[in-house]
Amino acid sequence: MDRMKTLKNYKKLFSDFWGYCESDIPICWGCFMAQAVDIHHLENKGLGGVKNHRLNRIDNLFPVCRKCHDLAHANKSINKKWKQVLLDRIEAKEFMDKI
Fold first, then answer.
1. If you write DSSP's letter for every residue of 2-68 in order, what string do you get?
2. Range of the domain at 71
3. Total structural domains in the chain?
4. Which of 1, 11, 43, 90 has the fewest CB atoms within 10 Å, i.e. is most exposed?
């Protein structure tokens, strides 16, 4: 599988779970001020990627603007904070889906 197909797969996973269509650009969940141009892996894939794309999970994908993406790679502690934000959003969504 080539890199571009993998990239599209995790973006599609994110979009499908949160109900976005391909043309939608969500707001950054880091700063809530800019468009999210990237989907950040909270647990880093590293340069070589990971076997079987195991980090392409909804609980590891966080939409960010370029500034927040740079921040996440410069300050790894922000990923812990964002992980909790993401888990809370997933829990709230799953709760709302059951109503």
1. -HHHHHHHHHHHHHHHHT--TT--PBPTTTSSSB--EEEESS---TT--GGGTT-SGGGEEEE-HHH
2. 3-98
3. 1
4. 1
